[in-house]
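> example.struct
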């Protein structure tokens, strides 16, 4: 994936609003080039625009470049975009755009007929430079993160993968969707490997076998087709094999489509705990095909629903209408783009998870599913946030679990987010999620106890 993101599109498309909502460092050519310069003639103005784009795309840290509508008319700018940025075209129809800009001081928005003609003229240029077309902020976040969410996207896998592909999947998913994936990869498919289904995939012995079986060279791509266990383990194999090769997750479970396959974290487990060995390894592309979920067993759907409800709580959206896959993936993608290495706001994605992990550990990871534990954890987090949890109850119906109270409490105190023995939790404040919130031990213990039966 290229480091920078460039937003192109006609004036009035909403590029500035979308760029701001992404929350990444942004350079706007409109802000950097005074509009008065236009009076000296369009070439002088365009030349300055090109300079601003060149400087922005030369930066070492990733930036979003918000390009004025006409910047793509300069061949040098188109060249720079091709080389250095993921280019997202924020498309808008001419009448919507006109409604937004008419009456403004923009020199090219004074006459509707000229405006319309220019809108027509520019479309092929935007199409030529764009890596993706977007209609809203979520589309832009997904495109910036290299995520394609589209029904039937599996069929396009071949065009989204470059070089030879090693397909890595699990026996269940292979039996259902393996053939379609192989057909879609066509002549790019070089090898196919199976990891064990479920958490067994995330063991050193399964990884060892995969490392030894892989034949790809450094130009190859690991394609991970399966749930979160497959994408975590195959992603880690891709991060380490030959010191790292490209990878493309194709998540097939709800958990993986809304969570595990988004954000570039890969891992395997140790006997001492889950996800203790891993790497940040951002995929070159992530292919999310919601149609693949049709074959998912109900129990597994329920697992994913807990993360969907978590996301709805974080975004503050109406819980009565659970978010769709696209919205959840876009939300997580945007958070991870802003904080790829988990130093700050990415921690909010752990809402309810400190309790959940404590319950899972107390059950020795047997008998209490992650989704069930998260549902309970969300109730505790809501309670400590002073919020009502009736809707979470209604949607997820989590029953208290039978685990050893002392063991659960001990696990909670060992959480890696705690500081100096003091508990730090993610809670929901009035202004949205807050992380690293210190919570008195007695209160946390009481909330935990209420999740445990007997
Ligand atoms: N990397 C991250 O950021 C991240 C985030 C959340 C979870 N995770 C990890 O994800 C894992 C859990 O993921 P999961 O719940 O997807 O588990 P999973 O990969 O074991 O999949 C669940 C089950 O569903 C089956 N399955 C998957 N897709 C199917 C389909 N379309 N049709 C029929 N069956 C299908 C699988 O074969 C498996 O038996 C955990 O190990 C967790 O740590 C990682
Ligand atoms: Zn989770």
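> example.seq
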């Amino acid at each position: 994936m290229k480091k920078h993101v460039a937003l192109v599109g006609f004036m009035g498309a909403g590029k500035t609003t979308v760029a701001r909502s992404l929350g990444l460092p942004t350079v706007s050519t409109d802000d950097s080039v005074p509009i008065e310069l236009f009076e000296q003639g369009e070439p002088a103005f365009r030349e300055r625009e090109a300079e601003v784009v060149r400087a922005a795309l030369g930066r070492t840290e990733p930036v979003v470049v918000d390009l004025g509508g006409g910047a793509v008319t300069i061949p040098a700018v188109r060249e720079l975009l091709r080389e250095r940025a993921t280019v997202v075209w924020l498309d808008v129809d001419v009448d919507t755009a006109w409604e937004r800009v008419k009456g403004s001081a923009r020199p090219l928005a004074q006459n509707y007929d000229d405006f319309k003609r220019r809108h027509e003229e520019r479309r092929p240029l935007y199409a030529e430079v764009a890596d993706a077309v977007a209609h809203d902020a979520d589309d832009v976040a997904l495109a910036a993160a290299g995520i394609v969410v589209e029904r039937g996207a599996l069929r396009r896998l071949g065009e989204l993968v470059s070089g030879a592909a090693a397909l890595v999947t699990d026996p269940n998913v292979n039996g259902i969707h393996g053939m379609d994936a192989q057909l879609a990869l066509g002549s790019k498919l070089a090898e196919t490997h199976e990891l064990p289904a479920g958490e067994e995939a995330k063991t050193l012995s399964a990884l060892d076998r995969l490392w030894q079986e892989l034949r790809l060279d450094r130009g190859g791509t690991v394609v991970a087709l399966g749930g979160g266990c497959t994408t975590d383990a195959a992603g880690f194999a891709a991060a380490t094999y030959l010191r790292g090769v490209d990878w493309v997750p194709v998540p097939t479970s709800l958990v993986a489509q809304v969570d595990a396959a988004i954000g570039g974290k890969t891992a395997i487990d140790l006997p001492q705990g889950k996800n203790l060995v891993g790497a940040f390894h951002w995929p070159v592309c992530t292919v999310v095909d919601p149609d693949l979920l049709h074959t998912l067993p109900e129990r597994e759907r329920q697992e994913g629903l807990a993360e969907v409800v978590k996301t709805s709580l974080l975004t503050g959206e109406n819980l009565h209408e659970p978010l769709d896959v696209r919205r959840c993936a876009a939300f997580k993608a945007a958070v991870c783009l802003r904080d790829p290495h988990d130093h700050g706001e990415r921690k909010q994605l752990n809402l309810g998870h400190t309790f959940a992990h404590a319950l899972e550990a107390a059950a020795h990871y047997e008998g209490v599913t992650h989704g069930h534990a998260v549902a309970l954890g969300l109730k505790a987090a809501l309670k400590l946030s002073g919020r009502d949890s009736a809707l979470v109850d209604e949607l997820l119906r989590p029953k208290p679990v039978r685990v050893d109270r002392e063991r659960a409490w001990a696990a909670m105190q060992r959480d890696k987010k705690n500081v100096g023995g003091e508990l730090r939790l993610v809670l929901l404040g009035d202004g949205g999620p807050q992380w690293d919130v210190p919570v008195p031990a007695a209160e946390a213990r009481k909330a935990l106890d209420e999740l445990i039966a007997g």
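> remarks
Residues 35 and 106 are 8 Å apart (CA to CA).
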